[in-house]
Each structure stands twice: as structure tokens, then as C-alpha cells.
Amino acid sequence: MARGSPSKMRWLDEVATLPRPGVVLLGVLALILASSAVAQDAAPAQAPGPASAPAASPQPDAPGLSESVVATVNDEIISTYDVVQRMRLLIVTSGIQPTDENLPEIQREAIRSLVDERLEMQELARQGKLQKFDLVASNAEVDDEIADIARSNNTSSTQLLAQLAAQGLGADTFREQLRAEISWRGWIRGRYGSRLTVGEDQIKAYQARLEAEAGKPQYQISEVFIDAGRAGSEQAAIDGATQLIGQLQKGAPFAAVAKQFSASPTAANGGDVGWITAGEMPAEVDQVLEALRPGQLSAPIPVKDGVYIVYLRDRRAGGDATLISLKQAAIALPRSATDDQVAAAQAKLEGLRPKLNGCDNLEVQAAKVDGVVSGDLGEAETKDLAPAFRQAAEALAVGQVSEPIRTDAGLHLIAVCGKRRSGSDLMDHDQIENRLYGQDLAMIAKRQLRDLRNSATIESR
């Protein structure tokens, strides 16, 4: 069965320093705070309002002591050990710096993610029994994902797991989060992917909208979205966003924070939304984007269902001008050149022209002809080109070469290396289809998990 790959990010450089477990806990929050007191290279977490810590519990490796139950999900237990380990995982992989203020929300996020994973794995077990097929990712598949993550961090799987262990984080905690993520994404794609069809009318409508909006300002952004329903209330979501922003301003890596805390489908890509135009995001976000400068982070932006944090990476003015990249092969001829001189130069260029494969070999072939010079003219708007060049460039397709063009400076062949609309990198047919397909699949996954929550028996202790 095809499995999806989780986003790979360079978070090992941001690891917080947490000592090994093995002491009796005076409460989950006290443990994490004490063990993180000297952490230097950390970063953000999410943080709605305060929550009481689970009952005091020792680490399981303390002989003769046992952990307590924090919650049950359809009678399956989530223990204090599970919660502490997940909190450590959130801290290490997101780069957050644990504080008295944000630890309650880290704890709540840990419990929320554990509940969701229990629901997903229970559903996979149920579906697997019905289909008589194992839908859970194998150890080998998890090993492959860990190897990919390690490579993206310029280390090995063994070194990566050793670094996590040094932070008091059990390898099983990391492996089981990956297993749930791979399995759920693989099942959603396997069950619904073949049923999804992105119609040509949808693609054409998307292309038409992109072309119509090419003249509008565009923004390259990353996002974190905190779902108010999942956070408990709008105010809780705002409080969480505020604390996350504080951590981001201290240097937390945005991509790592989005990966662990954002409820948007873009979380898998570290919150990367890409280039957008006004109207693609909620109106409240559009208003904020207008006022931001590249490199700035927004304040919390409340919207209908939650709160956004937006990081503006870049912006560019819209426009509908065409930019053309050109190269030329030319023979210098003064304005006073005789007809015979012009004819001789034209014969040379006419002989060269059939040998040219667009821009690919222009310089090489031109160098073989005595008196011909070549060069890259760069990219320019068509309106800025000399009239003779503009007329030829507009009529030529990419890869084509003009007939000899006479100017006051000489005789020229121009080759069109590229054409594009200014202010926009319009997606092609396949890119649009993939984006729409991914959006549909993400919405299905979100609805499936919502339905599982609504029908489940979830009890907190």
C-alpha cells in the first residue's frame, strides 16, 4: 500500500536540552520545567489558557512505581508517561522553550494529539479487520521515514535516535507518532484517492482566476492555524497564538512550529502556503497582509473558526506585462554601411540561423562564424525592448530564432529563451490538478477525524 511521507525539516539544530528520566515526578509540568531549565536553543509552542497538571507520576523506569491514567479513548488508556513523552517530543521537534506560561498548553496539545492518534489507529484496526488487510505501517516503513528525516538533518538514524534519547525521549514515542501519521495518510489516500476526480472545468476555472488576478499584489506566506474548536474556545485559540508568536520572535523555527501545532493541511509542509493573491485567504488575513513587510510576523488574526499566524516571506507587485528572456548573435555594422556590407553580413547570419537550437547552442555556434558576436540580453518587459526587437520577440515562441534584424548598431539574430507574466508564476495544468487534489484529500481526512471524535467515548481523569 502506498504511504505518504511526512514533511522533513531541519529541527535537530533547535533541540532543547532535557535530562534523562528516572526520578519520581512532582507533576508533569514540574518535570518538564525542571528538566528544561537550562535549555538554550529552543522555540515556540501553542498556548491557550491554563490547565491543571495530571496526577503526580514517576517515570516507568523508576522501580516499584507506576504511572496514572490521564484519559481514555474508547476505553484505551492514555497515561501520564504517554503525555510526558509527547510533551518532550513537541518541545524537541518544534524548538519551543518551555515556560510556566506555555507548558499547560503544550500539555493540552500533547493530549489532543494522542487522542487523535488513538482514534486514527482504532479506525485503521477496525477497517483492517473488515478488509482482512493490515493498514498499519510496518516497522520497515517507519525505519525508512526515520532514515529520510535523518538524511535531511545530515545525520544517521542511529545518531538521530541517540540525540532524542539524550533528551529523555523514548524511540517508541517518535516511532509511534510517525507510524500513526504514515498509516492514516496512506489509508485516506488509498480509500479515497482513486475516487477523487479533478475535472477539467475546475482546472480551467482555477487557471482563469489566476490569470485574472495576475495584476494584483501577491504574497509568499507561511501560516499557523489554530482551530478554535480544537483549542476549546476562540479566546483559548487567541491566547495560544499569542504565546506561539512570543516563541517565534525568540527564534523558534516557523516550519517546525507549524508542523506540530497548526491545524491547517499546510502543516505537513511546515506551514508553507506559497504565493497567493488577495481573496485566497480570509478577508481578515488579506487586510493584515496589506500592512506587513517581507520578514514580518503578524499578530494573532481571529477568523470565523480559529486564529491565524502569518509570516510574510516576500511580496511582489502585480502586473500583466510580459517578460521575455533573449539571446542574440550579431554583426556590428555602422549606420553608414554599404548595401554590399549589409548583404554580406545578412548572408553570414542566414547561414548560421539553421544551425541554432534556440538559446541552447547559440553562443557555441556563433563563435564558429568570423565576425559574429553573441551575448545574453537578459530578461526585460516587451515594452522596454527596441521597436524592432519587440516586434520580433512578441511574434516568436520560446526556442525560436528571428530572421536578421537591422538596427543602427548592426545586424542581429535574436532567440527567445523564455516568456512569462510579470508578477506571477502561473501554475501549469498538472500543478493545478495536484493542488486541487491535495486540498480535497486533506478535507476528507479532516472530516473523517471529526466524525471519529464525535462518535467516540473520550474521558479525562
Task: Describe, in plain words, how this protein is organized in 3D.
The protein has 461 residues and is an alpha+beta fold. The chain is built from 15 helices and 11 strands. The strands form 3 sheets. It has a 4-stranded antiparallel β-sheet with strand order 4-3-6-5, sandwiched between helices. Strands 8-7-10-9 form a 4-stranded antiparallel β-sheet. It has a 3-stranded antiparallel β-sheet with strand order 2-1-11. β1 and β2 (76-79) form a beta hairpin. The two termini are 38 Å apart. Mean pLDDT is 82; it is low at 1-31 and 34-65.
Describe, in short, the structure shown:
By secondary structure, the chain is of the alpha+beta class. The chain has 15 helices and eleven strands.
CATH architecture label of the largest domain: Orthogonal Bundle
Number of domains: 3
DSSP E strands, number: 11
Note the total helix count. 15
Sheet/helix structural class: alpha+beta
Distance, first to last CA: 38 Å
Assign the CATH superfamily of the largest domain.
Porin chaperone SurA, peptide-binding domain
Widest sheet: strand ordering: 4-3-6-5
Secondary-structure element series: HEEHHHHHHEHHHEHEEEHHEHEEHE
- The fold-level CATH name of the largest domain is Triger factor/SurA peptide-binding fold
Looking at the chains present, what oligomeric state does this protein adopt?
single chain
- Please tell me what the overall shape is: elongated
Spans where pLDDT lies below 50 across 5 or more residues: 1-31, 34-65
